[in-house]
Specification:
The protein is an alpha/beta fold. The chain folds into 2 domains: 190 residues, 3-Layer(aba) Sandwich (Rossmann fold), CATH 3.40.50.2000; 176 residues, Glycogen Phosphorylase B (Rossmann fold), CATH 3.40.50.2000. The protein is 41% helix and 18% strand. Strands 3-2-1-4-5-6-7 form a 7-stranded parallel sheet, with helices on both faces. The protein has a 6-stranded parallel sheet with strand order 10-9-8-11-12-13, sandwiched between helices. Helix 9 links the parallel strand 9 and strand 10. Helix 3 packs parallel to helix 4.
Length: 380
């Protein structure tokens, strides 16, 4: 093998799509790349959807069935170290740096004289970590030979922790869309859906886990505020998680339960109708390394309003290009940006802006960047 790529879970459909494209590109370049997922999924993903096996159009192995957390550290460490010891690849790509087993993989790979790279989606705007953790991250990154960053913010983060800019390969993310995706059909569907959307209401959408850091409560508060200003707005919440019951109670307390629809979990293919029939996606997170739902929304011509901590700024969201950003935690600023987007909303205008932006971030581009990184590391 020229390179072995390790990933935490097979659940990630966007990575499956990228890896499928990477396998094709590597084969065409007469390079051999191995793919290994540590587990099938994570507990936090179980309520969202099952693993979509159809996305994995590349040879790969899954070390453990079920959720990542269902195996012990010792089980994972033993199997992963065995994988590194057996590997004859010149390049080892690690799934991250935040778990002890990844540190052990790094140490053994370096002792074997291998080039080591790591995927990094962290940014300087993530939740604050202790000084001790920052020092540990710096040590880990300095020991690596290459880095696959999600965007400018993660690249800046890596550099601030000792990585060399020349060894950072950027734009390694892309949303996995249904195989039947057609921009022309989506445009027609979107025109039909929005011109008859819920009696003319401005329709917002949230897609993701219902967890504290996602700040869906902020979205509900903004809907209540918008309605108090006389703006006819509603929101559909797609996803599941520990905050579900609390958010439902909050909607009742705010008196907006008739204007909030909790849709539960949905497959990636099933999300199409939600994106097509929504005026805007809102991602109000307090911590969001990237925000792949923004990739998906823009692909369907649906602009996004995101908090200013999201890692997809500035690649996907520049003010007025494919949406807006607002100050994280601020209901007032979220309300302002929603009103700004809602004012004289033009479906064709936003569809053109969104699709123009997202065409720059395709699975092919992400795969090309990973392949270029692996080739450069192999040659070092």
């Amino acid at each position: 093998m020229d390179a072995d790529i390790f990933h935490n879970i097979a659940w990630s459909t966007y990575k499956a799509t990228i890896f499928s494209e990477l396998h094709k590109k590597a084969k065409a370049s007469h390079l051999s790349i191995g793919f290994c997922h540590i587990a099938e999924t994570e507990r936090s993903r179980l309520a969202i959807s099952a693993v979509d096996r159809l996305r994995h159009d590349y040879p790969h192995r899954v070390l453990f069935s079920g959720a990542y957390e269902d195996t012990s550290f010792w089980q994972r460490a033993y199997c992963l170290l065995l994988e590194i010891l057996k590997s004859d690849s010149k390049v080892i790509v690690l799934p991250g740096y935040h778990l002890i087993e990844y540190w052990l993989m790094l140490i053994v790979a370096k002792l074997k004289g291998r080039r080591v790279a790591v995927f990094c989606d962290s940014t300087g705007r993530d939740r604050n970590t202790s000084r001790l953790k920052s020092i540990a991250k710096r040590i880990f990154f300095v020991c690596c030979d290459g880095y696959f960053a999600y965007g400018k913010r993660s690249k800046d983060y890596l550099i601030s922790h000792g990585a060399t800019a020349a060894t950072i390969f950027q734009d390694c993310q892309a949303a996995a869309l249904p195989a039947t995706y057609s921009a022309k059909d989506i445009h027609a569907n979107r025109l039909a859906a929005l011109r008859d959307a819920n009696g003319g209401r401005f329709r917002l959408l949230y897609v993701g886990r219902l967890a504290p850091e996602k700040r869906v409560d902020l979205l509900l508060l903004s809907v209540a505020r918008l309605r108090s200003h006389g703006i006819d707005v509603d929101v559909r919440v797609v996803g599941a998680g520990p905050e579900g019951k609390l958010l439902f109670r909050l909607a009742v307390e705010l008196g907006i339960q008739e204007h909030v629809s909790f849709e539960g979990s949905c497959t990636s293919a099933g999300l199409a109708s939600y994106y097509e029939s929504s005026h805007a996606l809102v991602l109000p997170s307090d911590s969001e390394p990237w925000g792949l739902v923004v990739n998906e929304a823009l692909s369907y011509g649906c602009p996004a309003i995101v908090s200013d901590v999201c890692g997809c700024i500035p690649e996907l969201i520049e003010e007025g290009e494919a949406g807006f950003s607002f100050t994280a935690g601020s209901v007032e600023d979220l309300v302002r940006k929603t009103i700004k987007l809602q004012h004289d909303y033009d479906i064709d205008f936003w569809f053109a802006r969104c699709t123009k932006t997202i065409l720059k971030y395709s699975p092919e581009r992400a795969a090309s960047n990973i392949l270029a990184g692996c080739m450069r590391l192999r040659a070092m």
